[in-house]
Each structure stands twice: as C-alpha cells, then as structure tokens.
Amino acid sequence: MADLGFIAMVTALAVATYGMLIPHFGVARNNWNLVRSAQYATILNFFLMAVASGILIHALVVSDFSIYYVWGHSSTDMPLFYKVTSFWGGLEGSLLFWALVQSMFAMIVAWRYQHSNREIIPYVIAVLNGIMVFLLVLLVGWSNPLEPQAVVPLEGRGLNPLLQNPAMTIHPPSLYLGFIGFSVPFAFAMGGLMKGKLDNEWILTTRRWTLFSWYFLSAGLILGGQWAYEELGWGGYWAWDPVENAAFMPWLTGTAFLHSVMVQEKRNMLKIWNLVLIISTFALSILGTFLTRSGVVNSVHSFTQSEIGPAFLFFLAGVLLFALFLIFKRIRMLESDHRLESVLCRENAFLAQNILFVGIAFTVLLGTTFPLLAEAVRGTKLSIQAPFFNTVTSPMGYLLFLLMGIGTLIAWRRSSIESLKKNFLLPMIVASVGTMILFFLVPKKWEALLILWTAIFVMTTIVRELYKATAVKSKQMSVNFLVAFGYVIIRNSRRYGGLIIHVGVVLMFIGFAGRLFDIEKDLTLEVNRPVTVGNYQLVFKQMDEFPVRNATHRAAIIEVYQDGELLKVMKPAQSFYPTQPEPLTEVSIRRTMWEDLYLVLSTENPEEKSVTIKVHINPFVAWAWMALPIFTLGVGVAMLYRPKTLAIRREMAELQYAKNRFQSIK
After folding, report:
1. pLDDT tens-digit profile of 156-202?
2. What's the CA gap between 484 and 472, in Å, rounded?
3. Does CATH place domain 1-158 in 2.60.40?
C-alpha cells in the first residue's frame, strides 16, 4: 500500500508537470484542446493525491508501524480522533495534506472556470500546477510520508501530547485552507500579468476565494489562540511566538488586500498596490511554511530540523523575482484611471488602513526574522520578545480599530464638513457616555478605557448604519422592521456582511482590553483552608488520580466559592502519557461572559498536605472567542454578493462555448 501511494505521488508529479507546461503550448498554437487537456490533468492530480492521502490515513488508523511516519506520530493507545489528526501532526504528513488541499483547489478552478476567463485561465492553470510541482518534488525527493522501515516496531512514539487537543484538530487545517486558498487569487493575478489582461475581472472572479481564504486564516488564528490558552498553561493566548507570527503576517496583508480591492472595483485605482498585496500574502505564506518546517526557530508550534527549509527559501525567491518581473513588464498598463478627489473620502480611509496593516506586517516580519539574520551573519543569538511587538504594534492596531469606525461614516469620493459633523455626533456622544459609565465599573486603566471608548464608537456606527438603511426600507416597502432588515442585508450583502465581520472585530478588541485587567497570583493551598483571590474563595480538598483518554491525570480537587455559594469544583492537573517521559500541565478553567477563573497546578507537596497553584483571573476572554461565529455569519452573508458584470460575462462565455460546440458538432 505504501508503494502504491508513492507511485501515486510520482504520477502526480508527472501530471502536474504536464499541466504546468502544456497550457503555454496551447496558447502559442491557439489550440484550446491542449489547454483543456491541462485542465483534465489538474483534475486527475487531485484524485492521485487523494489516493496517497487515503493510504496514509488508513495506515494511521490501523497503526501500521511499517511506515516510518506512522511510527513517529501515532501509537495504538491513541483515540481514533487523534490518529486521524496525526495526518497533519508531523512534517511529512502536513506537507502531503498541503499538496492534497492545493490539488483540490486547483481542480475546482480547472472545473469551475473551464468555459469562462478563457484569456487568462491557461496561465492560471499553469501557475497552480507549478506550485504543485514544487510540493511534489519535496514529497517525492525529501519528505516521503509513506517511507517504509525495515524493522517493524510493536509500538509507535505517539502524537505530541500538546497536539492532542480538540482545537488542534481544526486549527492546522484551517490555517492550511487560508494559506493555500490565497494561491488562487495569486494565480489569477499572475495569469492577468502574463496575458496582459489587467482589468478588474481577476479581482471580481477571485473575490469569494479571497473571502474564503481570509475566513479560514482568521479561524485558524483564533483556534490556535484557544489551543494555546487551554494547553500551554501560561494564562494567555498570544505570545508573539515566531510561528504565530508566521500565520499572522499573511493575515495582515490578506486583510489589507480584501479592503483595497474594493477601491479598485469602485474607482479603478490602486492596481499596482493590489498586485503587490496579493503577491506579498502568498509570499508570506511560503515564508511561514519555511519558518515552521526548517527548524530555524524555537517554538512549541514548529516542526523539527529538516532538509526542505532551504527549498522553500529558493521557491520564495523564485516567486518574488517572477512576480516583480511581470509587474515591471506591465507597469504602464497598471496606471489608475482616477485620482483622489478629496482628503476626506473613504478611499483615503482604506488607504490609511492598508498602510497600517502593512506597517504591522513589516514590524512582525522584522521582529521575527532579525534574530535569524543576526545569528546567520554574526553568529550571535538574539531574542526579540513580546514587549517589542506590543510597544510597536499596539498604537497601529488601535488606529486601525478607530479607522474601522471612521471609514463607515465617510462617503466615497468626497465628504463635506457638515455631513461629517452630522455623522460623527451620535457615535461620539454614545461612546463618551458609555465610557464614563464604565469608568465607575472597571479598574481605572486609561489604555483599556480608550479601547472600550473606541469599541462603543465603532459599534454605534455599525448599528446606526444598519438602523438607517432598515428604517428607510421599512417605510418604502410598508413592511415590519425585521422583514426590512432581512431585505437590506440580502440586497447589499457585501457591505452589510462586512459590517457584521466588523462586529466580530469589536468583540476581539474588547477581549484584548480585558488582558489589561488580568490578575495573576501564586498560591499555596492547604487542605480545607479557604484562600481568597479576587472575588473567589478557593478550598483545596484532596489529590485524585483518574484516566482521561490515553493519559492518567493527577489532579488537585479545588472547590470554588463566591459569597459562600459553591460555583464549581475545579481540577487542575498534571497528565502522564505512556509514550512521554515528562508530565504535562492540564489547566482547569471556569468560564463566564465576564471573566475566566484559570487554575494551573504547579507542585504537589505531600508532606505538608498542600499544593501550589497559579491563579489567573482573565476578564472578557469569552468576547474574543465569540468573534469566530460572528465572522462565520458575516462571511456567509458577504459570500452572497455576486458582481453583476461578472455574472453577465460568465453567462456570455458559457453561451459562446455552447455555440462553438454546436457548430463543431454540426
């Protein structure tokens, strides 16, 4: 079976090479049948990758330790759920998963656009297959996940216990879907540059792909934060870890691209900027893969040292050189059709947001890679910690948050001073009154109050916008408010889907503000002696030992009281895995909408009949997690939008294809 999977990958490499080269011959000879054969080859590639992936998953499920990867990342005592998770839990398997998803997206593009976008689709197919060739060369040459071993062990080493968490079963695939999804708009951008067709069609065609990719990258980051919060035991969810940064950078440039394309679509401006953004997003995805798989950074998220790290750097350099060459070649075709008509316009707000997004991305890139460059050049190990990132990026992040509300209130092209006064008055009053009330309810920390003021300001602009549109539509149609609201959302799904996503961003910033109110204490608890921390009384009862899946937990049983009422029995623990020599920390969390009580077992003191625990009281954490379902709703609504010009072009292309087929048959 392993040999069959390897043959499938080798065949896929040959097929992808064919799909990369043949479209150029088809265009050169004006032979659409050659292009069509490349499209079919792209579809075949997915099924070949599915065969290889299915064989690896089967081997993981049945614990076939004759395959080296299965032995290194699985064991017989693991639950089935985590055996499947092992597919992307190691270097070679994650690379195969990457190739599988890449081939699936390429197949969808080849099938979906077989009759439309005829001028650039051959080049798009060639670019997507070129990416597949690179991945398959790595799989076949250096990182074969189906490599057999001569001696078959009786037991495997098991998946890293840190990865045996429900969030980790969704977090990596979500990031992969986001990373790989951005390869589609990148391929369309390269196709437009190679063909010299640089109108807005590639922007319109890839709009849903961009939204899809942005959503899954966002979901992956949030789920990764949840995993870190629950599994690592340090009380937080973002530490500016190099691998966290590697996923965050393409999210920043991808978000900038998502906003900037609206300016190009509406005003036919920022063409070069949008190309640079999508190229940067794809390039940063490749850089993130290099950081994760090369072993050059120390991170709980990263894989071990491997031989494929330099290959990703060479591929990244090739992508950048090729893309920049095409931009300079077509530079005269990328001039904007319009100019900014006023300083006070939404285009400027979007441009300012873009500059801030890219500024944060550059800061994160510098802080992540500078220690690596310093070590490579001078042999000196440096470490840039969270305070640097927080100090530099926090002001830019706050300005971005503020501009999110300001942009909603400013019109396209130009805004008058009178209209701005009218639009800004209500949100500023509501935000100021709300913050004055909060001043007496929360600790007096000006950074947090500033964020909360902005959150109320932005939320008021969103509610005001939705209310105004709904009230007008309700009056026009003579229907109740709820029906009018649904009609407004559907009729302008792009705008209001975006506003719903902005609600999720507001919730995230409220969660960030809560970090400024954290309480952290180290406590020693003796049996049946209450200790007060914050508004809670903690009572240690006893130590207990019990099995949890494939591990044994040794936990401190702690009763939590508030005003004499028992709230919860919490069990912070240390877990012992049969395949791991050292115990791991298992936190216990009591969650509410307003704050989390977070307990970590530090040490057990049997002689004194006591335990030492670390206590975190984290306000507003749940608000940050609530952003994900709001993002899901907002992206779902925004996906309903379909540009009329694109729909008309697609229908005309399909009619022309049907006409040509009829004439050829006749």
Report:
1. 888 878 777 787 788 889 999 999 999 999 999 999 999 988 888 88
2. 9
3. no
